[in-house]
Amino acid sequence: MNIKSEYYQTWEEYKEENPIVSDEGLKADKIQNYEELMYKFIFALFL
Amino acid sequence: MADIKQLQKDRQQLFTDLYEGRIPKRVPIMYNIGWEAAIQLAGHDLKQAQWDNSIVYDVYDKACSRLYGDLAPVAMTLRNPMHYQMLGAKAIIMSSSGQMQHPEIACLEPSEYDEFIQDPYKMMVDKLLPRLYKALDVSSGQKALTLGKAFKAYNDENVFYGATIGKIVEKYGYATIVTHGFGEAPFDFLADFLRSFSGINMDVRRMPDKVVEACEAITPHMIKLLVHMNPNPSILKKGFIPLHMAPYLNNKQFEKFYWPTFKKVVEAMVEAGQGVDLFVEHDWMRFIDYLADLPGRIRMRFEYGDPKIIKEKLQGKHIISGLYPLTLLKTATKEECIDKAKELIDILAPGGGYMFEFDKSALSMDDVNIDNLIAVTEYVRDHAIY
């Protein structure tokens, strides 16, 4: 059960918009981690 | 140092045995006093100390040198005032004495359910945050800057507190059960900050279908917070869910609004191999069969209820904790406090699946007689041996 939101971007969606990045050069887990941290922070403000 | 390492290993084994369904050498002791109570115990001024992370180690050290626990007996603050202040929080505010409090507040209007259901995260960012945090109710540029600062402060403080706790764990040889996510039952999430206690109680009568849809829309987000964001899940890492609203619902409302989506969240956690840690707030005796039916081996900290019935219904499947009334530490004699511990151990410890814990954490040193707390926990340590 994955979330869908206009404001949440998956790594695949990010790569489509930014074709210069690659899984090798910019680690998915590094960039995606910032998306996750902000998501977690926003929810923490409602918990 | 070798003794401390061995102590830590022994303590860790108590919890490993407990969580993996074996009878440990003795009943593990897991409780903590709240951050504010620990500040008071260490002799600091509460209001000043809330802002001052230079005292964090001292607060932990002073509390841990006096209190026995198999895990660190002090809770990390859940409500660091730094980012709440920067954001102009209305939902979490500091009282005149320095306690962080959550007043009744709502940010979602009944007429806005459809928009929320469509994309909860987007609506939270666009509309709901500025209603809860007045420093975000500004231009988009100012909002971005304020949110950026608060995000940095939140993460910096968390890293600092985490590192300090790590030092304390090593100094005292505590076991650790890593927190692996914090979330809520979808109905509780809707009630807490979005619609409020009074608002949700009107909604379940006036717009029940919207409440059900909203809970369903929240569910994947809770699963993300408690499952998908936690790599390398383990039953020894806990995804924590405090349960709030069920005791205030009648049985039909519980079955319609609360249980289906909460159960989905727990099932997803268990299926992923994630530990589940429930704080079963207030009295859930009407719903004990539902809890017993949950999959996995879940730690359930009960606030109130009949320990004999809870033990009988859970049948060793889940881990029971709580039920020891914290208020007794304030009002009873040392002997009466120890007798209560004996009573609970006699009922709950046989066959394993029990860890000692109070029914709630002390939020202030005014809540407890510290000598009674020490006497009870040391009694359990020395006598609750299998």
TrEMBL record, chain A:
According to the lineage, what is the superkingdom? Answer: Bacteria
Output this protein's name: Uncharacterized protein
* Origin organism lineage: Bacteria, Bacillati, Bacillota, Clostridia, Peptostreptococcales
From TrEMBL, chain B:
Specify the Uroporphyrinogen decarboxylase (URO-D) domain's residue ranges.
168-381
Gene3D superfamilies assigned to the protein according to its UniProt record, in alphabetical order: 3.20.20.210
Molecular function via GO: uroporphyrinogen decarboxylase activity
Biological process (GO) annotations held by this record are: porphyrin-containing compound biosynthetic process
Which SUPFAM superfamilies does UniProt cross-reference here?
A: UROD/MetE-like
Q: Which domain of life is it from?
A: Bacteria
- Protein name per its UniProtKB record: Uroporphyrinogen decarboxylase (URO-D)
Q: Could you tell me which species this protein originates from?
A: Anaerovirgula multivorans
